[in-house]
Amino acid sequence: MPHAPYPNPMTQKILIVDDEPNILILMEQALEDLEDEGVELLTAKNGEEALEIIKTEKPNLVFLDVMMPKMNGLKVCQIVKHELQMTEIYIIILTAKGQEFDKQKGIEVGADLYLTKPFRPKEVLEKSMEVLGF
Q1: CA distances (Å), 127 to each of 7, 34, 112, 122, 131, in order?
Q2: Which end of the chain is more exposed for a tag (fewer CB within 10 A), N or C?
Q3: How large is the average pLDDT for residues 14-42?
Q4: What is the pLDDT of residue 5?
Q5: Which domains does the chain have, with CATH numbers?
């Protein structure tokens, strides 16, 4: 019985983490052009699920909401960057919390970039292409 082919180690992955279904859909639509380039889009609906996916899939880029059930995005970011030492993963905090204090908190836990909602889909796509080297 033939086994499944190994996934291409060069496949780049983007993980979108948000508990709002509408935001997940909007993000996937904003990034769908990258799928034509072979980028795999992954989604998670809470912090615990995100952490599991990050550990197993090792995405290149993570868009991370802050306010989510089970574990907030700041905690996920802190665990990934500081405890797991996965500093090669580019994490963009994408949240409605736009106060300077919130941004400072995001940078402190290791976020590479802090964007606020509502976001421009074009900006999300351009930033993703830049991070992934397209």
Answers
A1: 25, 12, 12, 9, 6
A2: N
A3: 95
A4: 45
A5: 13-132 (3.40.50.2300)
